[in-house]
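Shipment paperwork, digital attachment
Item: protein structure file
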Amino acid sequence: MIDKEKFHVLNYVKKEEYCASMDGMRYMLKKKDSGDEPKLEVIIWPEPFCYAKTEEEKKQRMEFAFTPEGVEEAADWLNTQYLEQRPLWELSKKM
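Attachment content:
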């Protein structure tokens, strides 16, 4: 699970995409320029493949404010998705 107290990725995401994984669930956070305000886009997908090699229909996306609060909301969403879809992540680890 992601510890929000230690999940300080906003400055990194300002310049680069941030990729990581958590027991079968891969995820990416990236800055998305849309309209007046940038957004924090979070994408999750099952292992074993990287983002570029995973089919688009296996990816799930959510957007948050590009702020420290948005990063906390993103961490909450990632933790929720990890728990709610645990069978998918467990299955992907066996592939």
